[in-house]
Automatic annotation (TrEMBL):
The keyword Cell cycle does not apply. Keywords: Cytoplasm, Protein biosynthesis, Zinc. GO terms for molecular function: ATP binding; threonine-tRNA ligase activity; zinc ion binding. Residues 104-249 form the Aminoacyl-transfer RNA synthetases class-II family profile domain. This is Aminoacyl-transfer RNA synthetases class-II family profile domain-containing protein. One of its GO terms (cellular component) is cytoplasm. The keyword Oxidoreductase does not apply. GO terms for biological process: threonyl-tRNA aminoacylation. It comes from marine metagenome.
């Protein structure tokens, strides 16, 4: 601006007219942070609370009635049933009816899985997320291959779907509130995502886009998820019996 004024003053025979064009009217500054820092930059009263699905809230209020059905079709209340000749059934019945999943002492397989170098807890991860050694990975892969072969013999075709979904997607929100499971949640770019606890809804979403006729039915989709996730309560986690990250067909 100073140079323009000096040019104007030094030119006696040139008429100068000024107009406010070309000047910067405004500018903005953006600071890009690390993605992990960016995901934690929003705070609210609700952010510290863990959201619980409608299904989980409803499950805690449900009152259950337990019966034993005998081979002749008769129903008998579990408290009145004679378990004297059915000891294994009694163990199962008490386990299911008590709904107690916490563990007082580690089951025998915990020491075995460590001793045989099959699997172990991973201190650097969340509870219920295991590391599998070569022996464990070999056993696991053989089971996975066996299941896959059986499904293929049955006529199933294998697919692969995402491990995370938008919890506010119309289909997901409905499913989310009907299935009593605790999810891992992730906030990303304004979306509230959750890690899948099963693969079936991914297959339903995929199949909904297919062009199928009666000639294609029954159409059998199959996926072996590695991994599915459920944030089971910490007191219920023990060895390989109850996990937060697991393989599931």
């Amino acid at each position: 601006l100073k140079i323009l004024k000096e040019m104007q003053e030094s030119s006696t025979d040139i008429e100068v007219t000024r107009a406010p064009f070309g000047w910067t009217k405004a500018f903005s500054i953006q600071v890009k942070g690390h993605p992990l820092a960016e995901s934690s930059k929003v705070f609210s009263k609700e952010s510290s609370k863990e959201k619980t699905s409608t299904a989980l809230e409803s499950e805690s209020k449900i009152k259950s009635y337990w019966y034993i059905m005998t081979p002749d079709g008769k129903m008998e209340e579990i408290e009145k049933f004679n378990f004297s000749n059915h000891k294994q059934l009694e163990i199962l019945a008490k386990y299911e009816s008590a709904k107690k999943r916490s563990v007082d002492e580690p089951p025998p397989h915990v020491n075995l899985m460590k001793k045989l170098a099959i699997a172990d807890y991973e201190p650097a991860s969340d509870s219920g997320n295991m590391r599998f050694y070569p022996n464990g990975r070999l056993i696991k892969s053989q089971i996975e291959q066996y299941v896959t072969d059986k499904i293929r013999d049955y006529g199933g075709v294998e697919v692969e779907t995402p491990i995370m979904y938008d919890s506010h997607h119309p289909s997901m929100e409905s499913y989310f509130n009907r299935f009593p499971a605790r999810q891992y949640s992730i906030d990303s770019e304004g979306k509230h995502l959750f890690l899948r606890f099963a693969a079936c809804f991914g297959q339903f979403l995929m199949a909904s886009d297919f062009q199928l006729s009666y000639k294609n039915l029954p159409y059998k989709l199959y996926e072996l998820t590695r991994y599915s996730f459920r944030r089971e309560q910490s007191g219920e986690l023990v060895g390989l019996r109850r996990l937060r990250a697991f393989t599931m067909p």
